[in-house]
Backbone:
């Protein structure tokens, strides 16, 4: 997968790479405790792309966990440097989530919503007007990302 509309996300050491085509269907900033622990930051930002627009290259370890929603999330990480690069969440079965920071593109699409704001650090501020949900995202509607 290459071209003008391709984006490449990589782990810290470059061994695990994900290439995406086009823009994401959804970008979410998540303040849940699991994302805080996964990223080592007060929140994680994930871009959700349709599965057919994503290809991975390199060895990945997988850590599967049950999310607060009760659904499984399987996180693919680099076994060399530990960076979590992409994941599959049962909540969005037609998509892969990719860690926005792994794209290293400052102009990447900004989040369209904030989820799990009930566990957001009080000093974290998101742009005014950005929809925030105390818990997770509402389930996608048919034909919605």
Residues:
């Amino acid at each position: 997968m290459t071209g003008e509309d391709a984006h490449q996300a990589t782990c810290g050491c470059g061994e695990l790479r994900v290439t995406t085509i086009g823009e994401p269907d959804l970008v979410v900033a998540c303040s849940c405790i699991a994302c805080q622990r996964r990223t080592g930051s007060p929140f994680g930002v994930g871009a959700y792309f349709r599965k057919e627009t994503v290809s991975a290259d390199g060895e990945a370890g997988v850590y599967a966990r049950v999310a607060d929603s009760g659904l499984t999330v399987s996180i693919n990480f680099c076994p060399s440097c530990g960076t979590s690069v992409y994941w599959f969440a049962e909540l969005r079965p037609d998509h892969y989530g990719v860690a926005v920071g792994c794209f290293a593109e400052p102009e990447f699409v900004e989040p369209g919503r904030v989820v799990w704001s009930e566990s957001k650090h009080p000093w974290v501020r998101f742009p005014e007007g950005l929809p925030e949900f105390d818990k997770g995202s509402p389930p996608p509607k048919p034909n919605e990302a």
Observations:
- The mean pLDDT is 91.
- DSSP finds one helix and eleven strands in the chain.
